[in-house]
## 1
Amino acid sequence: MKQLLIICFILSFLTGCGDDTPGNTDDFDRTTLLINLSDNLILPALNGFKTNATVLNNDVAIFLNNPNPINLETLRATFETAYIAWQKASIFEIGPAENIAYRANVNTYPTDVSNITALINSGSYNLDAINNYDSKGLPAIDYLLFGSGDNDTDIIALFSTHPDKEKYKQYLSDIAEDILSKTNYVYNEWISGYDATFKSNKGNNIGSSISLFTNAFMLHYENRFRTLKIGLPTGVFSIEEQSFPELTEAYYSGISIDLIKANFNQLEKTYLGDNGVGIDDHLIGVDAEDVNSEITAQLAVIKEKLNLLTDPLTAQVVNDRPQVVEVYNEIQKLVPTLKADMFSALSIQITYSDTDGD
Amino acid sequence: MNSIKKHITTPIPIAPLVTFRVLFGFIMLISIIRFLAKGWVTQLYVEPTYYFSFIQADWFTPLSSTGMHFLFVLMGLSALGIMLGSFYKLSVFLFFVSFTYVELLDKSNYLNHYYFVSIISFLLLFVPANRAFSLDAIRKPFIKLDKIPAWCINIFKLQLIIVYFYAGAAKLNTDWLIHAMPLKIWLPAHADFPIIGNLLTKEWVAYAFSWSGAAYDLFVPFLLLFSRTRVIAYMAVIAFHLLTRMLFPIGMFPYIMILSTLIFFSPQWHEGILRKLKDLPGFNKALKDLLGFKNLAGLEKTYHPRYKNVLAVGITLFFVLQLLLPWRYTLYDGNLFWTEQGYRFSWRVMLMEKAGHATFYIKNPETNKEAQIDIKQYLAPHQEKQMAFQPDMLLQFAHFLDKEYQKQGIIDPEIRVESYVTLNGSKSKLIIDPTIDLSEQSINLKPKNGSCHLPIIENEETIHHTINCDAFVDHSNGTNYFR
């Protein structure tokens, strides 16, 4: 008996210390949820942005070969399409995207104009340095194509007649290429291995796909969507009730509202699982229909309220701040429902960290 | 009287205490290495800019990054010292002080098992656990003991009985027993669990787990006491703790309990284990003798602590306090699970599914302008998460914000919080009256309702027409908790 106990004891350590591995039983379609998320939402979004980033690179090359108003217009249009496509890809910051800080690489704003100028003048730079994140990506292109001169002639001049035109060309080309290479990396990593990992890791513990995914979703909704896109420019954290239009996304091109709407639509679409199994079905599967209906109702309210935003947002946050605050408040209302009720119902830990529970 | 005396003064073999010491030191060493390896020292005690300290004093803050890491290394070395029985008293003292200091630094990291570790290391201070099978005994063979008074072992058994029994008693509430909450939420999420995954989605399984979990906690310490039920009870200990380890992210706690409860086994059993260890190759005859229990010098057979009476009174008081502390919640009104007044330090383990989200607002009364607070500027995610549903932490943070904004030149900032909390699957509701300026509510241990300290919301109506101090609202909607 004693020996048996000792064996039990040792066994308990050997078996217990490792994390439990998922087995093969059916579970509220969490597998179908993961498959649907990867196949119908994440991959199409990444692929979509990849295509756009490729076109963007081509049009950058065309413009740089021949800087003229027509090519600038084409490039700007391509840029805007790409920026909207980015809004769909950006909400999935997990796996390879998280590993390389994809979002921070592609879309850190406000962009640091003085640093951009310094980098261009120096002619040598490491775009992978963290302190250069705010000098590259889409916001830097936004600046170069829309804000680097007082008018289109001045902007074109930077790339055609300016003494440092070669440096400007090189920089624009480099940062466009950087976006594409990061995107290719994330996409390739996803299809070549992470996809399978994602679909098979179907537990609900910390580190499981559903946990990573919902946490990334939450982090995006609360920080990237609510705070960065609307809260900060509106100055909701300012005790002087002061707006900060310069913090607006796409400050120079002024397409902020299109971006906000595209980002919101993607969040909503993802929640609903597009036409397949989404988080909504998962909630229903665990008898939390009430949580789901509250979320869907509030999503509808927000969608409606977003129409209160008027172009350009940079002006509206200054001239019509209360209206934007109203939009912000509706977005805010959903945070506790997601963060408390949804996570609780799905029995997923809100955790950007993995400390022990009790 | 005699039987009580039997449990206190009867000389019994030292072996159970020795294995307890070795295993406790071992598992603490592992825990600390794990803590360091996971980078939690930095994450929990270096990165945050604000800490929800248990001790409200400006000086009571974490050390520098180097300091904290050094402290954890020291803690690890003292755990090693406990395990090997080397400079035992110093090791136990350093371990107890450093561990307890760290635990008191931030309420966000409070875990019952950390509290348990503090208590055990405190009790170890008073027993001669290094007087056999230890480096100390090899160094100074004359300290060796073969017997110690029974209390030296029984205090640990008593402590374990308290932990289990109170954990079981805390489960005797309607949510746990009648509604199978929160297991009804937690278990189905493990549908992918090997073999029994499918079962976990069944409602009756949640009930079975709830009831058997409560029964386990209530009875297992007593079944461990008696030799006839001990082996089966210990099997249950292993099964129960491993199952919880696999289902929930509870870290080292299951292992700590699996090892600690071995103390219930007979001295002969422990001597057998230690003898086997001694017989491992590599120990020569002389070393074996040194490691043995027999006092070679024959100077002292049993342990006679100094200040016996002081010790007796002290330890008695300690256990009286242990027995009373979990009941302090009865001094407070309201639903314990909602208000959490008197919740900690009471062995309430994995009792509820509670989550929330708090939004703080600051108003400058002079300009009448108001802003939301960017909590992330001050708190790490784990702190934000814990604070959202714990009223005392919300109040503590409000006071911190009050000071912060005063520094920024706002003379009398008004701090409000809008915190939505869900408890055991209920729809999230406000936990604190969002119209109240929390900076005006004092922080102390007095009941936080009806006395103008923390306006926890207790029913739906009060929220609308009272801004007075009775606005402590219980949203439990008819759920009566066993009090």
Note: Chain B is about 50% helix and 5% strand.
## 2
Amino acid sequence: MATASAAKAAHLPAPDHPLDDLVRTDRIPHIWCPGCGIGTAFSACLKALKASEIDLKKACMVSGIGCSGRAAGYVKLDSFHTTHGRAIPFATGLKLGNPDLNVIVFSGDGDLFAIGGNHFIHAARRNMDLTVVCVNNLNYGMTGGQAAATTPFGAKTTTTPVGNPDAPFNLPLMAWASGATYVARWTILHTRELTESIKKAILKNGFSFIEVLAPCPINYGRRNREKAMDTLKLYQDRTLIRNNADPSDLDIDFSSRVVLGEFVDTQRATCIENYDRTCRPQ
Amino acid sequence: MKPAVLTGEYYMTGDVACAEGALAAGCRFFGGYPITPATEVAEHMSARLPDVGGTFIQMEDEIAAMASILGASWAGQKSMTSTSGPGFSLMMENIGLGVCTETPCVVVNVQRAGPSTGLPTMGAQADMMQARWGSHGHYEIIALAPCSAQEIFYQTITAFNLSERYRTPVLIMTDEIIGHMSEKVVIPKADAITHVTRTKPKGRKDRFKLFAPDKNGVAPMPAAGDGYQIHVTGLTHDEKGYPVMTVDTQKEMMDRLTGKILNNRDDIIITEAHQLDDAEIVLVSYGISARTSLAAMHQARAMGMKVGLLRLITVWPFAEDQIRELADRVKGFVTVEINLGQIHLEVTRCAAGKAPCHLVGHAGGAIISPEQVIDVLKEKF
């Protein structure tokens, strides 16, 4: 987008970005900080939407509150920026209200797993046909870097000034245990794999969950001696891809290694299929 | 498919009448969570909705239930939830989202005595101010208070019609007493029921503005999937629906949100006058307490007191003009409600010192008897 404004300034015709038709370009510049990983996760999501070849008129994005929650404000689809933690139940109503819609929930770790954690496990239990993309930056970025349910033990945040005394969630384990039929984890450095996973999830009938590790250099990184490039380096050096890994073996610990990959890809009846079969037999 | 409108005469509870009214109004989505004394609304919807092509879902809590009906509304459905005090508290934030994003839906509160868990199986009317102001920020809301199972049936239809016409959540404030009381309910023929459905936009989709109002102050509303690429946010937004963090945009949005209700008060406010023409003392009441008040009015008349009753069917927005007009010519007001003075405060405000205002209140858990009203009438007038 920066290229477009530079071209405009030079009175040259603005070149088209290949994702422009999926972006509310009139809302650019976005709010995300330099070094933030959300934009990369967002563009992977847009690429996946295109690659899926679904009818984009029937695609919706629902977000909660937070930095990642702003995605719904930039995507040129029917898009809903809801209340903190409530993207999933809103999306549940949207999908049940019109099962022809393809609904993507794009939000952050604080939104989906602290205030919204209950909704996540229940939507997975029901196998609601949603694609949930969680950008995990290990803290609450929008409010200035407080501890989240994903903050590593011992990490410093504004509400854990001497180190986080709590243990973080293993998100893929929770998704698997709750009944999700597709579970994957990538970092923003793994854009191809991430895009492919989101595409699979969009096309999948059932509850799909993709965790995307993303740096937050401004709020998390600087309190933990981690510059944006350091985080990316960790994503390169301290990750290993192990598809179908045991979900209980997926704790995030960058001091040793973090497992990425596609962990679950199964099939079971969705919420709507079960409702139709049980409550309105022909 | 079975008929949505079960034309005929029935003996049913207020909660069941509420569900039947919703179905007759075209409600096809219900997101619920069990809570006494509103559970029967959800139970009845769970049994009936699949038969009429609708969907019932029991959500994980009332926060989710409220969020789900907003989502379903944007999918194009007429949607509803029902709850009681504690659940109503949990729904408040998303009721605000519904107000801010101008999302039609209906929320039923079968009131029980509070605060907190209170008396779960016993009635009250103590959430009336919560209905008005429970979500944060300044806003206008529509709340109806029917007084019988039959009226719950009809007012649920009215609630849907108002929510669709004004693109706003509408609250139905019943109580445990009428919710659980079985009474005769007559369900009319389907073609005798008036349906209002949100106006769909016309014209070029790329120029469409989601919050640009029509003449009545309300903007047409497309559904997700209609091809408008709408953006809906709880942030302060402009007519296009885009967030704009300025004082001017906040004012424009607030003017629209409050104006569409306040400027249409004549259409929204429904009241019923009983012997007000020659009344010297006016009882003001709503819901189950209005039935107490009506009995008290007849007893007082028999005793030679010129008592009338103003029954509020629409409680919010408040019937300010009627109270003001009455205040100029009556000796006083007595508000009858199962709380310790909520609508009484509104009556007092509008009477503005021109007529004394008294309360026949109750801490909750039981109905007020006509004798309690008579005692106050004798004592004060």
Note: Chain A touches chain B at residues 24, 26-27, 57-58, 60, 62, 72-73, 76-83, 85-86, 88-98, 100-101, 118-119, 122, 271, 275, 279-280 (CB under 8 Å).
